[in-house]
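Why does residue order matter? Because the sequence determines the fold. Keep that principle in mind as you read this record.
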Amino acid sequence: MQARRMGYTLLQIVAVTIFGGGLMILIFTFNSQSLPSAHMNFLGAGGGQVPNNLVRLEFALLRTYASAIMSGGIGSYILLQTSIRQGSRRAMIGLVIIVTLSEVNDGLQMYTTYEKNIHHQ
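Structure:
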């Protein structure tokens, strides 16, 4: 029973962390006026200027991405507080799918972007 409780607590931490990561991205897009340096390098504008339309587009895409990540965190947390707490195996499978899709895609996109930046410099 103790291992189950610890696993449940870890899953809650994961859900809150996923939501927090999306929230940080969302807040960044409203507080910043320029793109992150990794994005500038990816666009090939290492020290130069990027047109404002491109910056607005990038921030819009980041906001869309952030809201999707936040939705995954909220969905995971709701599943934990309702169906999973009641012992539903289907809800646990849904939780694993939500977390896997969001985090694997996030990691894969960051890795491929990083690789493109390294090999084009």
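DSSP finds four helices and no strands in the chain.
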